[in-house]
Structure formats: structure tokens, C-alpha cells
Amino acid sequence: MNDELQSYHDEFDGLKHEAVTFLDGLTDAQWTWRPDPGRWSVAQCFEHLCIVGSLLVPKLDEAIQRGRERKLLATGPSSYSWPGRMFVDSLQPNAPMKIRTVKLYQPTGLLTKSDCLGRFADVQDRLVNSVRSAEGLDLVRIKVASPANRLLRFSLGIWFAATVAHERRHIDQARRVTQDPRFVAA
């Protein structure tokens, strides 16, 4: 596996381990506690990861398959485009504990911790499998359609990087919830 793919593999695997470790000690009350009405609980942060992951993985798999069949190759420079860079940059956390997203992705916060962890682990395993199946492909030339907007297409490498950034952001947001002075005591 090349260095870039190996780094994505390690990131997805590491985020899964980090999430399980982080959530293991939370009570049900801590899982659903919200700092304010307009902010998300730990549960909502992780449910959002599951929602987006379940939409993204099939798109990744489709792009990889098309790449294998040489049906989704793009011409142009072999580096990330400025919209791609903006896309990845936009996923970095700017406002603590405040996440804006389209209504399609809004979590309900109703999943239990064990159900959500199971779904998250499944998504992470599927992402790792996607990384493995991309071995030998040109990550720049293969384009992935956005689940939210079919007109938006970014390179496979951008999508892997953006997914890592998206997951890292939400796990960090969930951690910030637990660092709030009003966080429910164990």
C-alpha cells in the first residue's frame, strides 16, 4: 500500500479506536447531554458521523469501481484543485461546539451509545476496506460525486482527506462537550 493510502488507513483505524475509548466511560446521561439548545450532544456528534459515513461510503466504492473500469478518469493537473482545498479546509472546526450542516444530515440524537458505536465501527471498517480497494489507483484522477450535490465532484484523495477531517472535527466537538464546566457528572 502506498504511503498516502496507508496514512488514510491508519487514520480511519485510529479514529475508530479513539472513539471507542472516548465513549466507553460515558454514562447514558452524559451521552445525550447538550450544552445549549442550539448545540449538539456527544450523541448527535457521533450520530452525524454515522449518517454522513453511510452516505459517503457507497460513493467512494462506486468511484473506486469506476476507476478500476477506467470509466471515471478526469483530465487536468495531477494536484488538488483550489475548490478541493477549500472543501477540506471548510471541514476544520472554527466555532467550538457549534456545527452547521444541511437538514438532510441533522441527527436526531435518539440512537443509544452502543447502537451508535456499532454503526460508527461498521462505517470505519467500510472506509478501511475502501482504502484497501483503492490500492494501485490514481487518487487524483478518480472523481467522487458528493452525496449532497451530484454536481460537486472531488478527487478520491480529497474525499479520503475530507472524511478524515470531518470525523476528526466531530470527535473533537464531542470532546469539547465533555469539557464544558456544566457537563453532567459521572
Descriptive report:
- The chain has one domain: dinb family like domain (Four Helix Bundle (Hemerythrin (Met), subunit A)).
- With 186 residues, the chain is mainly alpha-helical.
- Residues 74-88 and 92-104 have low confidence and may be disordered.
- Strands 1-2 form a two-stranded antiparallel sheet.
- It has helices at 3-24, 28-32, 42-68, 82-90, 113-133, 156-178; strands at 143-145, 153-155.
- Helices cover 58% and strands 3% of the residues.
- Output mean pLDDT: 79
Overall form: elongated
Q: Architecture, according to CATH?
A: Up-down Bundle
Stated plainly, the CATH topology is called Four Helix Bundle (Hemerythrin (Met), subunit A)
Total of helices: 6
CATH superfamily: dinb family like domain
Low-confidence stretches: 74-88, 92-104
Order of helices and strands: HHHHHEEH
List keywords for this structure.
single chain, 186 residues, mainly alpha, Four Helix Bundle (Hemerythrin (Met), subunit A), two-stranded antiparallel ribbon, 6 helices, 58% helix, 3% strand
